Hints:
alpha+beta, HU Protein, Chain A, 3-stranded mixed beta sheet, disordered C terminus
Amino acid sequence: MAVFYTLYQNNREGFVNKGKWYARVRVNQVKTMKDIAREIQDIASVRKSDVMAVLTELPDVMNKMLEEGHRVKLDGFGSFKIGIRTKPAATVRDFSVVKNIKSSHIVFQPDRLYEANGKKGTRFLASTLEFKEWGEGSKDGGVNP
Length: 145
């Protein structure tokens, strides 16, 4: 299966790249925890209900760990940590959480595949992607899935 994309033109006034074309990923379907549990049940020796029990608790456990300032690593998948956006302060003394921290977000970094010689290889989740344009009559012959 491929990752589909659609093309769009940047028409925003004042941008250097106004009029240029870009690609945007077109989401095929939304998969839920139930879909994940069903897939895991098919390849592992556990029932879907057991997988669902674990997956249901995972967000709460990860949230607690992230709130404590930890990086959360899921082996073979990737790691999560808290990132922040800040406004600058003129001096160290001028910096305050209330005035300078604008927002927080989750940073995800996929695991890497390692080569036989131990060197870091490609990112695990992006190692075998195939891209196709979404829609009938696209340049590469793709059609709506």
